[in-house]
Amino acid sequence: MKQYMIKELQSLVNNEIANRSSALTTMKPAMLYEPVSYSLKMGGKRLRPILLLMSYNMFSDNINQVLPAAVSVEVFHNFTLLHDDIMDKSEIRRNAPAVFVKFGENNAILSGDAMAFLSYRILNECLSDRISDVINLFTSTAIEVCEGQQYDMDFEDCLDISESDYLEMIRLKTAVLLGYCLKSGAMLGNADAEICDRLFLLGINLGLAFQLQDDLLDTYGSQELLGKKIGNDIAGNKKTYLLVKAFEKAGEDIKSELSGWLSSGREKEEEKIKAVIDIYNKLSVKSITENKIQHYFNNVFSTLEDLPLDKNLTVQLKRLISGMQERKY
Amino acid sequence: MKQYMIKELQSLVNNEIANRSSALTTMKPAMLYEPVSYSLKMGGKRLRPILLLMSYNMFSDNINQVLPAAVSVEVFHNFTLLHDDIMDKSEIRRNAPAVFVKFGENNAILSGDAMAFLSYRILNECLSDRISDVINLFTSTAIEVCEGQQYDMDFEDCLDISESDYLEMIRLKTAVLLGYCLKSGAMLGNADAEICDRLFLLGINLGLAFQLQDDLLDTYGSQELLGKKIGNDIAGNKKTYLLVKAFEKAGEDIKSELSGWLSSGREKEEEKIKAVIDIYNKLSVKSITENKIQHYFNNVFSTLEDLPLDKNLTVQLKRLISGMQERKY
Q1: Which residue of A has its CA nearest to B138?
Q2: Using the beta-carbon criterion (under 8 Å), do A149 and B110 form an inter-chain contact?
Q3: Which chain B residue's Cα is nearest to A168?
Q4: Contact A114 B139 (CB under 8 A)
Q5: Beta-bridge partner residues of A92
Q6: What separation, in Å, do the N-terminal and C-terminal C-alpha atoms of chain A show?
């Protein structure tokens, strides 16, 4: 059985998405389908489709058969970005104007809706006995992603978020979709139910690690590598693992200093970012977060090692995860 | 085989929706599920679930088995209302504040998204061999409904809409969902493919008649019966069948008069409504629209008569449709 390399899968996914995006530009009404095509052409890491295909490839090498499932999850992921960007007023996405900025809010709402349904239509193109089960898993995952986004919005007006509340939020908002990718890939490859469940768990841990890395890099990453300014989350009062831990570790003095910065306006942005990073440094928030990320990656690797599969079959996935662990942007 | 009366189906649907709405109020995060419950409790005619059950009841009387499908289509319909109301800035829905007014725009977007996925989850509760086919039909219908809403928005900035463009818009926005109800009900009742398709066609004609009635009643209905002001569409420059036909029939003078009113602001609203109705009257737009509605109802009844089914089985659906034909609000 052929084991596809990461780069091979990436180019299969990118080609498939490019072809479908081009087809979309000829579909009517244009104002519905153009934003869909625009958002898919923006690029991105294609992490979710690649995870799905890699998981499938541990059980089958008939990759073309499940390319629609891989595209489907990317369309779904982009649907969430379209709507989240409206809700969060995030005007820039992947160094380009967000869909609602380029096409207007109404079109971003409606094209997002269309993408949600398109992700079902594309998923259903997979010829598989397991497709009904996969579609049901997709539905429950999508509902959980909505729940996660709601918790994230709830947290905006909230200072005392516990670590476990925060982790539950990112589990729903980010991790379950990675779990879905790995589990659905295995299901489509006709893997045993137990292996499917273990891969789901692996995806959850990977998703938690991934989101905590995002949190960490936004404050401690390299401006150059990220291609964006450091401290965005701090400037925007975004609740992150770093902030949650800082509040947990801080004494009353630092707590009130932090709260002060969180209620300050945009005018003292540079000063605020510097001050909050100083607090993080004092409280060792960086190493606490790094340790937590390491903890989840350890879970990921041990789950991977424990899979009752030939090591040849897991080597690509292991390589991908190692790459994710090292990521600097 | 028991033939359910309209009222019986209505109360089954209302009970089922009431139970599910109550369950939703205990689900977390509350800000995600409260708007869903609010929107379902607002009421409405429940036309779509009743059509689905009636169609099913021509082939089976095990109504409880398909109640989830009936609820699912109502959840989907309400999802479209949540998002359409944001896009159209319609602040009042069924004499109450629209969801985006009551809960904010972000929550209306996100709860709407959740409803889209909930409609899949609920639909999938139906135990039926045909459920996969029904889900696929649901997906393609949902995409068409998005297309219809996009055409409706495109028409906002457009004066020269042809009759056929307008009819295609309402076919997508309104009629295909009624077609879906009748076809999916029949599919779940294990009807032959040909009967399913004929019922779909019946639903399309019914949906076109239904939307044209809406257009007509907004201008020529009774304020009292409608529970809302006459002339809303005219005041809001909404493209309707009446307006499309008026532009088609008008000479150059009346055309420019109409265009003038369409570009006037809200300050002369009463005068505008009166003037546009005068133009409609001059051009016999009312009877033209009535004839078109009659045409579609004729199609509906002849499709119904031609169904290769015992007349006992179609009597309730015929009664429902006759009631719709007489509706004054």
Answers
A1: A117
A2: yes
A3: B29
A4: no
A5: A97
A6: 33
Question: H/E/C letters for each residue in chain B?
Answer: CCCCCHHHHHHHHHHHHHHHHHHHCCCCCHHHHHHHHHHHHCCCCCHHHHHHHHHHHCCCCCHHHHHHHHHHHHHHHHHHHHHHHHHHCCCEECCEECHHHHHCHHHHHHHHHHHHHHHHHHHCCCCCCCHHHHHHHHHHHHHHHHHHHHHHHHHCCCCCCCHHHHHHHHHHHHHHHHHHHHHHHHHHCCCCHHHHHHHHHHHHHHHHHHHHHHHHHHHHCCHHHHCCCCCHHHHCCCCCHHHHHHHHHCCHHHHHHHHHHHCCCHHHHHHHHHHHHHHHHHCCHHHHHHHHHHHHHHHHHHHHHHCCCCHHHHHHHHHHHHHHHCCCC
Give the residue from A72, A143, A151 with the most B CB atoms within 10 Å of its CB, the best one to mutate: A143
Strand A92-93 versus strand B96-97 pairing type: unpaired
Mean pLDDT (whole number) for A187-209: 98
Please give the domain boundaries of chain A with CATH numbers for all domains: 1-127 (1.10.600.10), 131-329 (1.10.600.10)
Chain B residues with CB-CB distance to A under 8 A?
A: 28-29, 31-32, 83, 86-87, 106-107, 109-110, 112-114, 116-118, 120-121, 124, 131-132, 135-136, 139-140, 142-143, 146-147, 149-151, 153-154
User: Is 80 exceeded by the pLDDT of residue B265?
Assistant: no
Helix axes B30-41, B105-123, angle to 10 degrees: 80
How many Cβ atoms are within 10 Å of A233's Cβ, its own excluded? 19
Contact B312, B291 (CB under 8 A): no
Task: Among A31, A106, A124, select the one facing B136 at the smallest CB separation.
Answer: A124
Tell me what pLDDT residue A226 has: 75
What is the average pLDDT across A194-212?
98
C-alpha angle B23-B139-B34 in degrees, rounded to nearest 5: 25
pTM reported for the whole predicted model = 0.97
pLDDT tens-digit readout, B97-118: 999 999 999 999 999 999 999 9
Q: How far apart are CA B204 and CA B172, in angstroms?
A: 9
**B110: which chain A residues are within 8 Å (Cβ-Cβ)?**
83, 87, 146, 149-150, 153
Give the one of A117, A149, A150 whose C-beta lies nearest to B142's C-beta: A117
Q: For B2-61, write each residue's pLDDT tens digit.
A: 999 999 999 999 999 999 999 999 999 999 999 999 999 998 899 999 999 999 999 999
pLDDT of residue B306 exceeding 80 = yes
Residue B92: φ, ψ to 5°: -115, 135
pLDDT tens, residue by residue, B311-326: 999 999 999 999 999 9
Q: Which of B87, B112, B146 is nearest residue A32 as measured by Cβ atoms?
A: B146
Q: What is the pLDDT of residues A132-164, one digit of tens each?
A: 999 999 999 999 999 999 999 999 988 889 999
- Average model confidence (pLDDT) across chain A: 96
Q: What is the mean pLDDT of residues A23-50?
A: 96
